[in-house]
Every structure is written in C-alpha cells, then in structure tokens.
Here is the input.
Amino acid sequence: MRLRNNDSTREEILTRYFPQYRLIAPQAHSGLGGASCIIEQGERRLVLRQNHDPFAPASHFRRQFRALRRLPPDLVPAPRFFRQGWMAVDYLEGEVKSALPDTPALASMLYHLHRQPRLGWRTTLFPLLVHYWQQALPDRRTTVWLANLKRLRKTGEPQPIRLAPLHMDVHAGNIVHTPAGIRLIDWEYAGDGDVALELAAVWTESEAARQMLIRDYARVPHTDPDALRRQVRRWRPWVIMLMAGWFEMRYRQSRDKQFIALADDAWRQLQTKG
Here is the structure.
C-alpha cells in the first residue's frame, strides 16, 4: 500500500514503520510543531514530526531533512526517517530554556554552523515578503506595508559578506541545552545566506543584547566588528518586515489576536529603526 501524499495519519506511520516503538509523549519540544511526538524503543527515542505548514511546498519539508543530514551532530538532532509529510530525528535529552544561552556560547555555536559546507539552496527574503503580503487579510495590507515592500524591492538585498548555512529562526525555544552542549532544532527556514542576516534575525531580548552577540561573533573569526555591525544594520529592515508579515499571515490563519499585537509591534519597530 502506497502512503497517501500528505494525509497519512500518525497511527499509519507508527504501524507501518515503527511497529516496535511506543508513544511516550504526544508533543515534543516547543520548537517542533505540528503533529510531533516522541516515540521510544528500549533506550532509543525519536521525535516523529509531520509537515505542519499546508501553505509551504512539499520541497521545503524535504529540505529540512537534507539540511539535518548535511550538518554535524554537535549542531542538530540526527535525522533517521523521511516519508512524504513525515520525518523522524533523534530525541535530544536536555532542556529548552526561556532565554538564549550566554552570548559567547551562542556566538560560538553560530560561527560553528557558519563554517559548515553550504546546503545548496539560497535564502532569499523578497519572495517570502511578497508571500506574506498575499496571505494577509486584505484590510491589513496597508499603504505603509506596500511602500516598504516597494522600497526593499528597489534597494535589493544587501550583498553578502560571506555565504554560509543559516538556521534563520534562532530563539530560545529552538535551542536544546544537552549534557554535551547546545543544539538547534526546527530547521524549516534553513538555507544559504549572509552570516550577517543570521545575526540580524536572532530573537535577542534587546538591541543591546544583539550588539553583544555581534561583538562576540566577530571576536571568534577575527572579523571587523564595525563592518559586521553595519551589515547587520542593513539587514534589520528586511528581518523586521519578515517578522511583521509572518505575524500578519499567522493571524489570518489562526485569528489569534496575539499575532496582531506582535505584528503591530514589528511595524512600530520598522518606523523607528528601519
């Protein structure tokens, strides 16, 4: 029996491919969304995850698995299984904390990621910005939003200072603190891009914290911190637009008003800092 393309249930996947495993937790770390769960056989635990974005091409989910296969186990959970719409990775024993790791440790992890061979596909932001515009509620597509889209299209993305694999969703909920060190989960936005874009996109608690991250990151590869800081500043309007657009899209999908509050905050940031 062939699996149906995107609608195989968790029970079908478990019965066919993991008959010796038992379900021990219906939901994994917060960074693994959708129909993710933890399964166990003896000492081995896996996170089984379903593609939870119905609006994204199926190729994006396959790219996640490809990224995990190409990156070392001191950065990512090891990938173990992939079928249409489902993947399984090693479960990481550890803690997901409410705050980012100490800045030197975070900078070192990101620099280690950025030294890996490229993944083979580029992270380009403008198509995403247009997609979020199209998926937002019509009455939320303001003239300010459209003007910013046109401005970014005219200026174009900053020329990268160095291309490398990027995670592009670094925040506290996507970092597992394991006994062997910190690891990144939830690689759905991964791709090759400018290292400064990654630093611009990290969800720091404040702008001061971002500046500390830039300083410590530049210290590792002996990069000019002022040049890196300027490049991060060029990327920030793109990142803030990306955040605002994603919140707008998620509000239309969920009607959860917290996303409107987050979007409005991002638009205010764009006006004051962009």
Observations:
- The CA atoms of residues 211 and 229 lie 8 Å apart.
- Strands lie at 22-25, 37-41, 44-50, 79-83, 86-90, 95-96, 163-166, 175-178, 181-184, 191-194.
- Residues 1-7 have pLDDT under 50 and may be disordered.
